[in-house]
Amino acid sequence: MRCPYCGERETRVLDSRPVEIRIRRRRECSRCGKRFTTYEVVERPLLMVQKKDGSLEAFDRQKLLKGVFSAIKKRPVSAAQITSMIEEMETQYTSEMRSTVTSAEIGNTVMEKLKNIDAVAYIRFASVYQEFTDVAGFIAAIGALDQPEPHSGDTSRTKEEKS
User: For burial by CB atoms within 10 Å, which of 9, 47, 102, 140 has the most?
Assistant: First the structure.
């Protein structure tokens, strides 16, 4: 690592600590003695997204963040929750050593995660992602909120029968 002040290659690491998805290192130059900070990030394989029309484009974390942030606008959802959600998705895809993921899979995953975070954000995202053209689309999405989770135990009886 070169010193940004004098260009010396010999630097000493004074402190290392994890920060989000990277490692922050505080360094000191052996020649000029000045200190500076560097960040180390794990290099991930390039993840490609297969669009509905069959074309491929590189996974763009910022594009996905922008879409989800528009769904949570003025909702009690923190940016940290959304950033964590997208980081979890990206980590899952790369840990499976996948090079391609479909836009449908990304959209469905975001919808499932938003369903558990905020119902209104889920409906907003679903309306854009599924391209609702009439009220029936909204009604179906709202109905999906009432469906019990498959892993929640006995789903053979309705709420009224259980009461």
Answer: 47
Q: How far apart are CA 9 and CA 162, in angstroms?
A: 70
Q: Who contacts 56 (Cβ-Cβ below 8 Å, separation ≥6)?
A: 48, 49, 50, 100
Give the whole-angstrom CA distance, residue 29 versus residue 19.
22
Give the pTM: 0.58
Q: What is the mean pLDDT of residues 147-163?
A: 46
For residue 20, give the nearest of 97, 114, 110, 87 by alpha carbon: 87
Query: ∠49-51-57 over CA atoms, to 5°?
Result: 45
Between CA 146 and CA 127 the distance in angstroms is 17
Place of tokens 């009432």: 146
